[in-house]
Design brief:
Blueprint: H1 3-6, H2 16-26, H3 43-46, H4 51-59, H5 63-68, H6 74-82, E1 85-88, H7 102-115, E2 120-125, H8 135-147, E3 152-156, E4 180-184, E5 207-211, H9 217-225, E6 232-236, E7 242-247, E8 253-257, E9 261-268, E10 274-278, E11 293-296, E12 304-308, E13 314-317, E14 320-321, E15 339-344, H10 349-360, E16 367-372, H11 384-389, H12 394-399, E17 402-406, H13 412-424, E18 430-435, H14 443-454, E19 465-469, H15 478-482, E20 499-503, E21 509-514
Length: about 525
């Protein structure tokens, strides 16, 4: 069965942007810890194991197979009743059947939740098309999950149209046992006016992903306030203008992907290490008419930051809004950032002119990832002299070790910036230039620029240029961003040299070697 049909409406019924957002969100849902490919065998041998191990065996089976073990013997029946199960509604679908089975799946989920007296370690419900008439069913599910101590929960509804969608029951806030929670395509209850449970809160929640959810600023404030152990927050395809206020003493990673976000304010986040704002015209989303404002007040552990868009995003450090020509002071820098990702149109003068000011805010950045967006209507060139006249930029002069430049278009402004880096970055170990094969109107000019870079007077002592072709349809990965053990979320450090060949004027192919 196509994965798209498991999650509601077929992609061809949606506009391209909504389709893109949903595909992005669905591709990073939690995967089931059990497989339907395995089958029970050698039952007599397994039965010799002690009860504790057998409970673990049952808990690692799909719920349907776990229930079947109860017919083996009275001993297995006892084990099934007490073992925590994994419930995934895609496992309940008949083979080769799509969304038409939604009602049958909904009934099967209700029966499974009612029948099993034990707990549920992992529950993933993505196939049911819950409508307003089904709110009683949804509320019952949530009450049972709260009572039976669900650990990880994926709850995704029929995706569109959301304005006429279904509101999450407030009973969800009684699921105190939750460790990971993924919610998709719901209306969020108004936490400011709704009658919430007296025990509302997620005392054990560590990971929260909200996809295509209609919510307000106060709802997000509420979630952070009642989740004292929350480490990972991701907002994907948010459906309302959001002013996100990050005040959390546990949060380590925050992502806002292809969302309508007017402001992200890092108010007080002493453990925040990673902050990502990803999305824009280069990623399938129409350019917003309003700029996103990023405010950084207190984030002493922030090490990974991206994708900032000079000239589009409004950056504010402390109480100072960063503009072209803003002078560096101790109050306008974030010294903890080690890896920085930027996205800009080098053909737009105002965006390029903001780049030096943005870079000066992060004097200790050692790795820089730049995505160069295509410029439809260039507004003029900025030569190397602009960078030379701007003076020293601390992170480039003394800290920068690696720069990855993606989607090199061959624009003069791109070349001037790369030449400035080559001639000033004393600690540089490599400059990776990512090319798109077959995308250049004047390939000879590209080769001339590359040769000029190679022959530049490199401040680091020798040519550090490496060439490669675009390998990734998108530079961003939600799961990688959430991985707190990953030291390379922007894929700045994993490039291998690419073997190049060039066809000369006579048509002969000449090997250029690994570059």
């Amino acid at each position: 069965m196509p994965a798209e049909m498991r999650h509601g409406l077929a992609p061809d019924t949606l506009d391209p942007y909504k389709n893109f957002v949903l595909r992005f969100f669905y591709s990073f849902l939690l995967q089931s810890p059990v497989s339907t490919a395995a089958s029970l065998s050698c039952v007599d041998r397994v039965s010799l194991l002690p009860d504790d191990l057998l409970r673990r065996v049952v808990s690692r089976l799909p719920a349907k197979d776990g229930a079947r073990t109860a017919v083996l013997s009275s001993r297995w029946r006892h084990l099934w009743h007490s073992a925590p199960l994994v419930l995934v509604d895609t496992h309940l679908l008949p083979p080769n059947r799509a969304g038409a089975e939604s009602r049958a799946v909904t009934a099967a989920v209700s029966a499974a939740l009612e029948a099993h007296p034990g707990g549920f370690d992992f529950v993933s419900l993505t196939c049911s098309f819950i409508e307003r008439a089904d709110r009683g069913v949804l509320a019952r599910w949530v009450r049972l999950l709260a009572t039976k101590g669900v650990g990880d929960l994926v709850l995704v509804n029929r995706p569109w149209p959301l304005p006429r969608g279904v509101c999450l029951p407030v009973g969800l806030f009684s699921c105190a046992s939750l460790h990971r929670l993924y919610l998709g395509a719901w209306l969020f209850p108004d936490t400011a006016t709704a009658t919430l449970p007296s025990d509302a809160g997620f005392p054990n929640l560590r990971e929260l992903v909200l996809g295509c959810v209609v919510m307000t600023d106060k709802d997000l404030d509420f979630l952070l306030a009642v989740s004292p152990e929350l480490e990972i927050l991701a907002v994907v395809g948010n459906q309302t203008q959001l002013h996100a206020r990050l005040a959390s003493h546990s949060l380590r990673c925050a992502q806002f992907c292809v969302s309508t976000v007017e402001e992200v304010a890092v108010v007080d986040a002493p453990l925040l290490e990673r902050l990502y704002i990803w999305g824009g015209s280069s990623h399938g989303q129409p350019r917003s008419k309003t700029s996103t404002r990023l405010k950084i007040a207190r984030a002493p552990q922030l090490r990974f930051l991206g994708y900032l868009r000079p000239g589009v995003h409004i950056l504010q450090i402390g109480n100072t809004a960063i503009n072209a020509g803003t002078k560096v002071t101790p109050s306008t820098i974030v010294p903890s950032v080690k890896m920085l990702a930027l996205s800009l149109r080098f053909g737009i003068r105002n965006e390029v002119k903001m780049l030096p000011s943005f870079l000066r805010c992060f004097p200790n950045a050692e790795a820089l990832c730049i995505e160069s967006e295509k410029t439809r209507e260039p507004t003029g060139n900025i030569r190397l002299k602009f960078w030379q006249d701007n003076g020293l930029i601390d992170c480039i002069r003394s800290r920068l070790k690696s720069i990855v430049f993606r989607e090199f278009h061959g624009h003069e402004n791109e070349f001037a910036f790369l030449m400035f880096v080559a001639e000033n970055a004393e600690a540089l170990e490599r400059m990776v230039l990512e090319l798109k094969l077959g995308k250049y109107a004047a390939p000879v000019e590209i080769v001339i620029k590359i040769k000029a870079l190679e022959s530049a007077k490199w401040a680091s002592g020798s040519n550090k240029l490496q060439l490669t072709f675009s390998k990734f349809p998108s530079a961003w990965n939600l799961a990688r961003g959430c991985d707190l053990s990953c030291d390379d979320p922007f894929l700045c450090l994993c490039y291998m040299p690419t073997y190049f060949e060039m066809r000369d004027s006579s048509g002969q192919v000449k090997p250029l070697g690994y570059l």
